[in-house]
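fyi for ur records
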Amino acid sequence: MKPVVLICYGILFYCCNAYGQAPHEKIAYADVDYIFNKLPVAKQIESELKSLQAQLDNQLKNKYEELSKKYSLYVEQKETANAAELQNNEKELQFLQENFQKFEQDCQATLQRKQKQLLDPVSQSIQKAISAVATERGYDFILNAGAGQNDVILFAVERADVSNLVLQKMGVQTPDK
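which gave:
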Protein backbone atom coordinates (compact mmCIF):
# COMPACT_ATOMS: atom_id res chain seq x y z
CA MET A 1 0.00 0.00 0.00
CA LYS A 2 2.83 2.44 0.81
CA PRO A 3 4.47 2.23 -2.65
CA VAL A 4 1.16 3.17 -4.30
CA VAL A 5 0.84 6.24 -2.03
CA LEU A 6 4.43 7.28 -2.81
CA ILE A 7 3.81 6.93 -6.54
CA CYS A 8 0.64 9.03 -6.27
CA TYR A 9 2.51 11.74 -4.36
CA GLY A 10 5.27 11.67 -6.97
CA ILE A 11 2.81 12.10 -9.83
CA LEU A 12 1.01 14.87 -7.95
CA PHE A 13 4.32 16.67 -7.25
CA TYR A 14 5.36 16.41 -10.92
CA CYS A 15 2.02 17.73 -12.18
CA CYS A 16 1.99 20.66 -9.74
CA ASN A 17 5.51 21.66 -10.73
CA ALA A 18 4.91 21.24 -14.46
CA TYR A 19 1.74 23.34 -14.49
CA GLY A 20 2.87 25.85 -11.88
CA GLN A 21 5.73 27.25 -13.93
CA ALA A 22 5.38 30.10 -16.36
CA PRO A 23 6.00 28.74 -19.86
CA HIS A 24 8.17 31.50 -21.32
CA GLU A 25 10.21 33.15 -18.61
CA LYS A 26 13.29 34.82 -20.04
CA ILE A 27 16.30 35.13 -17.77
CA ALA A 28 19.56 36.94 -18.46
CA TYR A 29 22.48 38.13 -16.42
CA ALA A 30 24.69 41.19 -16.30
CA ASP A 31 28.07 41.71 -14.68
CA VAL A 32 27.55 45.00 -12.84
CA ASP A 33 31.24 45.25 -11.89
CA TYR A 34 32.22 44.86 -15.55
CA ILE A 35 29.65 47.49 -16.57
CA PHE A 36 30.85 49.94 -13.92
CA ASN A 37 34.53 49.48 -14.84
CA LYS A 38 33.77 50.18 -18.53
CA LEU A 39 32.07 53.50 -17.75
CA PRO A 40 34.18 56.62 -18.34
CA VAL A 41 33.17 57.95 -14.90
CA ALA A 42 34.69 54.89 -13.17
CA LYS A 43 38.27 56.15 -13.52
CA GLN A 44 37.25 59.60 -12.30
CA ILE A 45 35.52 58.11 -9.25
CA GLU A 46 38.49 55.87 -8.51
CA SER A 47 40.86 58.83 -8.84
CA GLU A 48 38.74 61.02 -6.58
CA LEU A 49 38.48 58.31 -3.92
CA LYS A 50 42.23 57.61 -4.05
CA SER A 51 42.96 61.33 -3.68
CA LEU A 52 40.66 61.63 -0.68
CA GLN A 53 42.16 58.47 0.82
CA ALA A 54 45.66 59.92 0.42
CA GLN A 55 44.64 63.18 2.09
CA LEU A 56 43.03 61.38 4.99
CA ASP A 57 45.99 59.02 5.34
CA ASN A 58 48.34 62.01 5.45
CA GLN A 59 46.27 63.72 8.15
CA LEU A 60 46.09 60.48 10.10
CA LYS A 61 49.85 60.02 9.78
CA ASN A 62 50.44 63.54 11.14
CA LYS A 63 48.17 62.91 14.12
CA TYR A 64 49.92 59.60 14.78
CA GLU A 65 53.35 61.26 14.65
CA GLU A 66 52.17 63.89 17.15
CA LEU A 67 50.91 61.15 19.46
CA SER A 68 54.12 59.18 19.02
CA LYS A 69 56.29 62.21 19.84
CA LYS A 70 54.29 62.96 22.97
CA TYR A 71 54.59 59.34 24.07
CA SER A 72 58.37 59.33 23.47
CA LEU A 73 58.68 62.54 25.48
CA TYR A 74 56.60 60.99 28.26
CA VAL A 75 58.86 57.91 28.38
CA GLU A 76 62.00 60.09 28.50
CA GLN A 77 60.63 62.24 31.32
CA LYS A 78 59.11 59.38 33.27
CA GLU A 79 62.24 58.92 35.39
CA THR A 80 62.73 62.59 36.26
CA ALA A 81 59.17 63.97 36.42
CA ASN A 82 57.21 64.26 39.65
CA ALA A 83 53.89 62.47 40.20
CA ALA A 84 51.74 65.46 39.24
CA GLU A 85 53.61 65.99 35.95
CA LEU A 86 53.35 62.28 35.13
CA GLN A 87 49.64 62.31 35.83
CA ASN A 88 49.14 65.37 33.59
CA ASN A 89 51.22 63.78 30.82
CA GLU A 90 49.26 60.53 31.09
CA LYS A 91 45.96 62.43 30.85
CA GLU A 92 47.25 64.31 27.83
CA LEU A 93 48.37 61.05 26.18
CA GLN A 94 45.02 59.44 26.89
CA PHE A 95 43.25 62.49 25.43
CA LEU A 96 45.46 62.39 22.31
CA GLN A 97 44.89 58.63 21.92
CA GLU A 98 41.12 59.08 22.13
CA ASN A 99 41.26 61.96 19.63
CA PHE A 100 43.39 59.86 17.30
CA GLN A 101 40.90 56.97 17.43
CA LYS A 102 37.96 59.32 16.87
CA PHE A 103 39.73 60.98 13.97
CA GLU A 104 40.48 57.57 12.46
CA GLN A 105 36.78 56.65 12.66
CA ASP A 106 35.83 60.05 11.21
CA CYS A 107 38.21 59.45 8.30
CA GLN A 108 36.58 56.09 7.56
CA ALA A 109 33.12 57.65 7.74
CA THR A 110 34.18 60.51 5.46
CA LEU A 111 35.54 58.08 2.89
CA GLN A 112 32.38 55.95 3.03
CA ARG A 113 30.15 59.02 2.62
CA LYS A 114 32.18 60.20 -0.38
CA GLN A 115 32.08 56.73 -1.92
CA LYS A 116 28.30 56.59 -1.50
CA GLN A 117 27.93 60.13 -2.89
CA LEU A 118 29.94 59.22 -6.00
CA LEU A 119 28.60 55.70 -6.57
CA ASP A 120 24.87 56.11 -5.89
CA PRO A 121 24.10 58.11 -9.07
CA VAL A 122 26.12 55.66 -11.18
CA SER A 123 24.40 52.67 -9.57
CA GLN A 124 21.03 54.26 -10.26
CA SER A 125 21.89 54.87 -13.92
CA ILE A 126 23.12 51.28 -14.30
CA GLN A 127 19.90 50.00 -12.73
CA LYS A 128 17.84 52.22 -15.04
CA ALA A 129 19.71 50.89 -18.09
CA ILE A 130 19.30 47.28 -16.90
CA SER A 131 15.56 47.86 -16.50
CA ALA A 132 15.36 49.38 -19.98
CA VAL A 133 17.23 46.43 -21.54
CA ALA A 134 14.98 43.98 -19.68
CA THR A 135 11.84 45.75 -20.89
CA GLU A 136 13.05 46.09 -24.50
CA ARG A 137 14.27 42.50 -24.74
CA GLY A 138 11.38 40.94 -22.81
CA TYR A 139 13.42 39.55 -19.91
CA ASP A 140 11.56 38.60 -16.78
CA PHE A 141 14.73 38.45 -14.69
CA ILE A 142 18.25 39.83 -14.99
CA LEU A 143 20.65 38.52 -12.38
CA ASN A 144 24.03 39.91 -11.30
CA ALA A 145 26.99 37.75 -12.30
CA GLY A 146 29.80 39.93 -11.02
CA ALA A 147 29.41 39.97 -7.26
CA GLY A 148 32.68 38.16 -6.53
CA GLN A 149 32.18 35.40 -3.99
CA ASN A 150 28.47 36.21 -3.81
CA ASP A 151 27.49 35.59 -7.43
CA VAL A 152 23.79 35.06 -7.84
CA ILE A 153 24.38 32.77 -10.82
CA LEU A 154 25.82 29.30 -10.56
CA PHE A 155 25.72 28.65 -14.30
CA ALA A 156 24.84 30.74 -17.32
CA VAL A 157 25.32 30.54 -21.05
CA GLU A 158 27.25 33.41 -22.61
CA ARG A 159 24.35 34.40 -24.88
CA ALA A 160 22.31 35.36 -21.78
CA ASP A 161 24.85 38.03 -20.75
CA VAL A 162 23.34 41.47 -21.34
CA SER A 163 26.21 43.50 -19.84
CA ASN A 164 27.25 45.00 -23.21
CA LEU A 165 23.62 45.82 -24.02
CA VAL A 166 23.39 47.72 -20.73
CA LEU A 167 26.59 49.61 -21.61
CA GLN A 168 25.17 50.45 -25.04
CA LYS A 169 21.99 51.70 -23.37
CA MET A 170 24.23 53.97 -21.26
CA GLY A 171 25.99 55.25 -24.41
CA VAL A 172 29.25 53.31 -23.93
CA GLN A 173 30.47 51.31 -26.91
CA THR A 174 32.63 48.31 -26.00
CA PRO A 175 34.00 45.31 -27.79
CA ASP A 176 32.59 41.93 -26.87
CA LYS A 177 33.74 40.58 -23.50
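The mean pLDDT is 81. thats all i got for now
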